[in-house]
Amino acid sequence: MAPKVLMVAEKPSIALSIATVLSGGRMSTRRVSTEVHEFEGKFLGFPVLYRVTSVIGHVFSLDFHGRYQDWNATNPLDLFDAPTVKAESTPKAHIVRHLNQEARGCGHLVLWLDCDREGENICFEVIESTGFQSKDGKKIYRARFSSVTEKDILNAMSNLVEPNKNEALAVDARQEIDLKVGVAFTRFQTSYFNGKYGNLDSRVISYGPCQTPTLGFCVQRHLDISTFKPEKFWALHPYILHQGYELKLQWERHRLFDSDTAHMFQNIVKEDGRLKVIRISEKQESKSRPSGLNTVKLLKIASSAMGLGPQLAMQLAERLYTQGYISYPRTESTAYPSSFDYKGTLGALARNPEFGNYVQLLLSDGYHKPRSGTDVGDHPPITPMCSATEDMLGHDSWKLYQYICQHFLGTLSPECKYIKRTVEFESGGESFHCVGQHVTTKGFTSIMPWLAVSEKNIPQFTEGKKIDIARIEVEEGSTQPPDYLTESEVISLMEKNGIGTDASIPVHINNICERNYVQVQAGRRLVPTVLGISLIRGYQCIDPDLCLPDIRSFIEHQIGLVAKGQADHSLVVQHVIEQFRRKFTYFVKQIEDMDALFEAEFSPLSDTGRVLSKCGKCLRYMKLIASQPSRLYCGTCEEIYYTPQKGTIKLYKELTCPLDNFELLIFSLPGPEGKSFPFCPYCYNSPPFEGIGNLYGAAKTAGAVTLGKGAGMPCFQCPHPTCPHSMISQGVCACPECDGTLVLDPVSAPKWRLYCNMCNCFVSLPEGAHRISTTKDHCPNCDSTILEVDFNKKTTPLKDGGTLHVGCILCDELLHSLVEMKHGRSFFRNRGRGRGRGRRGRGNRKQQDPKMSFRDF
DNA sequence: GCAAGGTC
User: Fold this and answer.
1) Largest interatomic CA distance in chain A
2) Is strand B in 7 Å reach of the CB of A114?
3) Interatomic distance A488 CA / B5 C1' (Å)
4) Looking at residue A354, what DSSP letter applies?
5) CB of residue A92 closer than 7 A to nucleic acid strand B?
6) Is the CB of A709 under 7 A from strand B?
7) Distance (Å) from CA A462 to C1' B5?
8) Is A550 helix (H, G, I), strand (E, B) or coil?
């Protein structure tokens, strides 16, 4: 059998292109984690079986070791020295397993990852996943390509090189630095300020070497605006009547900031009374057509001209791409590859109802070769791939597609040419001028009309002739403050300062919006909030470096040394981390400088929130801070107790927890089907029993359960044997859908129901009952908890007209006929899964923790 | 609950 060659690309679309070119379209494709294309061919002159597949971006991502995940147990300073681990970035995709399986039996590995630093890093992630080792005649090759055209792919195949370890190491360095710096500052700031103020309205007070300088731009502009002092100015404008035109002339001095001087010049010119034509000049000007469209340019136009935010614009563009309407939308390049098929692309639009006529014109008159632009070697510029109409795409997608078409056609169109005529005048020693414009060739502006040069007619003049001044005015004005930065301007600043990449720029902007640091206002301007301003002003007080764009360039420069092989990876990481550790220590020491700004804007916890629930320790009322993360604050004990998030919280009948004496609360999720449950503020944050598997609201991470803010143990998970609110007392039977227990919702009247303490399954009980409660008895048949139902007198289903009924909801015919499973599967007594599951609910005493004893109560 | 970078 022919030897096998495994080839791996960065994304499925590239794998498909490579396989299509090398196989001439004759291949077999199967779908595993990603698609695998197989075909026969020749490799280095020998017949082989090719196997082409892909990853989906990075295979691994960096994080801290598990023992550093708990915010409360970790000092953020320790994070700088903390060990890091690489874990699969999308575990569900099983990319490692996939690569390992596909590599079996392959003698050669060819890496077709994108040709940038990140791609180089992914090369080594792929090598690690395949378990490929360059021995026993096995070899690893790197294909270098600048586009996925036939020419480039074949060229890469005949010039295979080795992957570049230094570039990959540079990415490893960046990952470690970004992680440690970002997480350390974020955790410290968040804990400090959320532990002090009650109305910060952001769960996380994040810091990052990209997001923070981005916020810095927006806040700096805010400061420029608020410190702006307008200045009055005066400008001299003579008017003339000539050949039926009234013309306003521009002053050579533009404007003066002194009224008296301006009026003095006015008098001088008035005295002269005439303007002499000094010079008439005519110049042929041209306005260049655009070069190829890259991502950043598209995002800027989407924001400024279409009102589409970068995140949304990217989503729409990706959809247009996967549907085949446009080429790959993530590219930095503005130069078309030399092999680009202009005719083919034009041809695709030739019958488009909107662009067809223009395309025909370009095809018949001969299109113009585009301007050169820059080629970063990633993907060609963004271009249309096939014809579409607004009906096919929907409004927003259409606007984006329409622009991509217009831009593409613009790049192949002639320049716009116009004649600019300037007439210069003199009067009383002062110079004035006027300008006329006449377009001779519209060129690309006829398909991109918003860029058109405006026509300005001026009459004919003769040099040396004198013209009477009709009147002369001094116009008074004042300088205007700049406006807030538009999203599009922020993108430009990020690009200019090397902050983020085409793919991550939208994410950073989105981040500072989501964290409530800025708000997108009219005209998509990013206006900083009080929180955003306080943060940046704080950094400016303590250590301005922290919010300047140089912080990113510094990191990029340092890892650049690793990429070029001029510095050792671990020495660079050590050096950079050390610098940031010092900054961090100083920041922590000086945090009161920033806090002074927060104090002026935000309310301390003790002044925030409404009085609710008595503290079990001091027996005084605590306060509920409603803003995220919602929490209770005991002013006497100076303790914070996080509550379940995103719901309403009420007192639960002044009942208290038998374990700690805290007053119980009821949490309700919004919506008619939202569940309600009691919880004890203390137990919720510090579960008194070990072995509680899934805490409510906890992130679903494999392995250890961590108590994040807002996650904890409600009463429905509590294994207390006698407390009337625990799972033991309120549990009825096993959930038919998962391993959870159905518990009685004690406040669900009149729509009584049971809900699962693990999944979102629930069961409605007889509606309108006066009272439904659990009893201490169990069903002898299925071990479910016996319920006591007090029916409403008017609607009682009991034949004798009585209201009290006791029974098992599974085995009692009457009760079972009145209950209804509201979600998912049917809810039958004999589910064929045996009685065993029925026992799991409250009957399963094995679930109790062995540590639990009455000593604790 | 944390960063920034890939990609879906």
Assistant:
1) 119
2) yes
3) 22
4) T
5) no
6) yes
7) 64
8) helix
pTM of whole model > 0.90? no
CB A206 within 7 Å, strand B: yes
Cα(A245)–Cα(A51) distance, integer angstroms: 75
Tell me how far CA of residue A562 lies from CA of A113, A119, A379, A555, A567, in angstroms. 20, 16, 25, 11, 5
Q: Which of A328, A418, A633, A755 is catalytic?
A: A328
Nucleotide B4, nearest residue via CA and C1': A178
The answer to whether residues A694 and A758 touch, using CB atoms and an 8 Å cutoff, is yes
Tell how many helices (H) and how many strands (E) occur in chain A.
22, 33
Position A704 confidence tier, pLDDT thresholds 50, 70, 90: very low
A663 touches strand B (CB under 7 A): no
Q: Please name the nucleotide lying closest to A119, CA to C1'.
A: B6
Buried b or exposed e, range A734-750, using 16+ CB within 10 angstroms: bbbbeebbbbbbbebee
Q: Name the amino acid, one letter, at A727.
A: M
Nearest to A86 by CA among A59, A57, A61, A55: A61
Residue owning tokens 């909107």: A354
**Alpha-carbon distance A554 to A536, whole Å?**
19
Q: Is the pLDDT of residue A569 over 80?
A: yes
Residue with tokens 């449950």, as numbered in its chain: A677
Token pair for residue A371?
A: 């301007």
Q: Are A412 and A362 in contact (CB under 8 A)?
A: yes
Residue A706: count of CB within 10 angstroms of its CB: 16
Report the distance separating Cα A484 and Cα A225, nearest Å.
8
| A328 in active site | yes
Is strand B less than 7 A from the beta carbon of A194? Answer: yes
Does an H or E element contain A653, and which?
strand A648-656
Q: How many CB atoms lie within 10 A of CB A583?
A: 17
User: Residue holding tokens 């409605």?
Assistant: A764
Q: Other C-beta atoms within 10 Å of A649: how many?
A: 20
Chain A window 825-844, residues with Cβ within 7 A of nucleic strand B: none
**A836 burial level (CB within 10 Å; 0-12, 13-18, 19+):** exposed
List, for residues A632-664, the tens digit of each pLDDT value.
877 777 788 888 888 888 878 878 888 888 888
Contact partners, residue A666, CB within 8 Å, separation at least 6: A649, A650, A651, A652, A676, A677, A678, A747
Q: What is the pLDDT of residues A745-795, one digit of tens each?
A: 888 888 888 888 887 777 888 887 888 889 988 888 888 888 888 888 888
- Gap from A57 CA to B6 C1', in Å? 4
Closest by Cα among A184, A232, A224 to A71: A184
Report the residue count for chain A. Answer: 857
Separation of CA A210 and C1' B5 in angstroms? 12
A699 touches strand B (CB under 7 A): yes
Protein CA at A552 to nucleotide C1' at B5, angstroms: 14
Which two structure tokens, joined as six digits, stand for A200?
């910060």
Statement: the CB of A492 is under 7 Å from strand B: no
CA A89 to C1' B8, whole Å: 13
- Which protein residue has its CA closest to C1' of B2? A183
Average pLDDT in the A590-611 region?
88
Q: Among residues A676, A667, A669, A664, which one has the least CA distance to residue A613?
A: A664
The DSSP letter of residue A712 is B
Higher pLDDT, residue A338 or A493: A493
Residue A242 C-alpha from the chain's centroid: 59
How far apart, in whole angstroms, are the C-alpha atoms of residue A354 and residue A20?
A: 32
Q: Quote the CA–CA distance of A681 and A676 in Å, as a whole number.
A: 15
Residue A447: Cβ within 10 Å count: 22
Non-local CB neighbours of A195 within 8 Å, separated by 6+ positions? A605, A640
**CB-proximal positions of chain B, under 7 Å:** 1-8
A291 touches strand B (CB under 7 A): no
